[in-house]
Design brief:
The chain has helices at residues 2-26, 30-55, 60-90; strands at residues 108-109, 114-115. By secondary structure, the protein is an all-alpha fold.
Amino acid sequence: MIDIILAVLSTVGALSILFASIGVLRMPDFYLRLSVTVKASTMGVGLLLICAAIMFPDDVSVTTKSIAIIFFLILTAPIAAHMIGRAAYTTNTPLWKGTVIDQLQGMYNHEKNILESDPNKADKTEKDNIADTEDATD
């Protein structure tokens, strides 16, 4: 029974990492690539670490390390992705042409590096950051 659980978890984890790598190739802009990579790879690595913890039930150090890595991965990966995405936005990395709305348009003061929280104070005259081509990486 444990072998079946390990096979299912490791297969789902490996497929999740595969989907993350395919997402890097298929997504049209930086922000979508970042999103799919962080979400899918975090789940895939977490499932593979759970498999390692189940595989060695008698070795407490493996289980403890696996749980610690999963905890820090879940804690740090979304924060790192948010900061990378914010840095990309502040350096005017273009959005995909198919982007419907840019909710931060006019809300970010590039001179002071401050994000305005009140939409009424936002600079509505700011030019949009949407790419002119189908693929934002051109």
